[in-house]
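Worked Example 4.2. Consider the chain below.
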Amino acid sequence: MTVSLSLKGKVAIVTGSGQGIGRAVAMYLAEQGVKVVTNNRRRHSTGYAQLTERDLAHLSPADLEWTEKMMAELSGDAETTAQAIREAGGEATPFFGDISDFQVAADLVETAVKTYGSVDIVVNIAGTFGFSPVDKITPELWDHVNNTKPKGHFNVIRHAVPYMKEKRWGRIVNTTSRAFLGDVIRHAEYCAANAGVVGLTRAVAMELYRYNITCNAISPFAYTRASVELEAHERAFRGTEESIFLDPKFNFPIEITPKPEYLAPFIAYLCTDKAANISGAIFSVAGNRISVFTNPEPVNEIKKEGKEKWTLEELDKQVHSVLMKDYKSVVEF
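Applying the procedure from the previous section yields the following structure tokens:
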């Protein structure tokens, strides 16, 4: 049997597809003949995710004008994305709701099933973030970020998988961030959320591979409303302790940030039969550059023979010279 790149006739749910990466993915999948259910939290989502009135007040008039202009240009919701797909000759249905709610995620999946007969593909793009040093993160911010990732991703997967198991075919693509590494930015809640996505992705891949269901994750680098908010925050607080970047060299100019449309083809490829043997992988996608992360594994080891515990003196002799040999700390930029 010929293994195909075709996705024609498949049914996909794309969360967070009112704007940015999700919108680009939804529209590209529709171009491939996929029937798409678009999703975001609510209609007319044009506000800021994290920028506050205080943040905006710290912007210069020119920077404030730039921020408002960019945010307006990048606005949209599930309906505007679905409408664009339909106008281009594709099939799409919008669904408004917050996937951090277990029942809402169930309703999202049922919308796909009732409208198009099943669900073959889940692309979890939905996410949010915050600007905060670890000692100032509020419980509300922590929950807001982690309820979308990984909880919201799990919620949609949980309700879609039974339909995928039934037909013994499914493709799941989650969205993480290089923040899962700990990163060089002041938002520990976001780092934790994206590390959770990596763990979820690998666990789902291992469990469902025998059903011909794959699960992968991408770490995207793209020009979105989130990147505009990040840039605006930096313009307001660059050089102060409120700057989100621990090292300025990691603050890439927004002008060189690739458009989200560059991400869509690779995400679509992961949904094809050609990618059936790719599962549990974590990719970085920045424009036309695609890389894959290595699987974490031990690299050095020390061992004490016998039943006696290590002493501090013994550890002192072994840790730096053997266990941590060639180790580079995450705090070494």
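The chain has a mean pLDDT of 90. The two ends are 50 Å apart (CA to CA). Compare this with Example 4.1 before moving on.
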